[in-house]
Amino acid sequence: MLSATKSSVLLNASGCLDALTAPEVARSLDGFVTKTITPEPRGGNPPVRIAETDAGMLNAIGLANPGRERFLAETLPRLRGLGVPVWVSVGGFSAAEYAETCAALEGVAAIELNLSCPNVDEAPESAAAIVAACRAATTLPLYAKLSPAAWDIAEGARAVEAAGADGLSLVNTLRGLALDARTLRPALARGSGGYSGPALKPVALAAVYACAAAVELPIVGMGGVRTGLDALELLAAGASAVALGTILFSDPSAPERIRSELAAEAAARGLSNPLEARGLAHSSLQMGVSHPGNEVQKVPGNGRKVTA
User: In the annotation, is 134 catalytic?
Assistant: First the structure.
């Protein structure tokens, strides 16, 4: 569980931090989210796999990872030794693959189901079907990571809630394209990639806002967070926690800075702690507020506690 002494909940977005290379950064967070793990090892997409844009970054890494067996035997024990709650991001190319990995996991804070990576082929089953298969395979908390590309993301949120999800991670990257200024050909070898960075924040806010009004699930909000005010806005839209992504590449010390700025922004608005801002954007909704231990009242809009 998250520390009851924390007045804000900060995680990293999956794939944006190597905790074993930068353990001090991981320890500055309230929980560490791994890169997505698939059953078999993956080398990922061919280079070039990252391209900067005017207002963000494109990546087409392609879920490069050591595979489930090596992760469980080598990586996860080392991550546990960091003293930070570990969330494992799980991917696959069928519902059965997702479920098999979930069944093999134990002793972690939560599982994040990567249901929306724009850089690989998707599983044929719906997000709800994958969540249902994973729910049958594990009792660990399941967070469904959804794509902001869906026209009605709230509908998807309701579907995964009904299938047994314990929370939502919003949002994943959006598919985008950058062209080389000289050749006018795609900057990434794969062509398109997942777009992240500052320009994603309004998309993330809209998704969190819509889903907080639609389901009674805790939400980890992410997308374009660079400052404490960005984090506070995601909380006001209905998130219970905030994840930092692209900012960690340019500013590894961002977690402590953003935590400090978040507290200051909350205090400037008369809030005793940042989590009291949760749901304030929903003037027509009675949103819950955080209590000691970061447990959230079960009221319309966002009802369960965040686990980490």
Answer: no
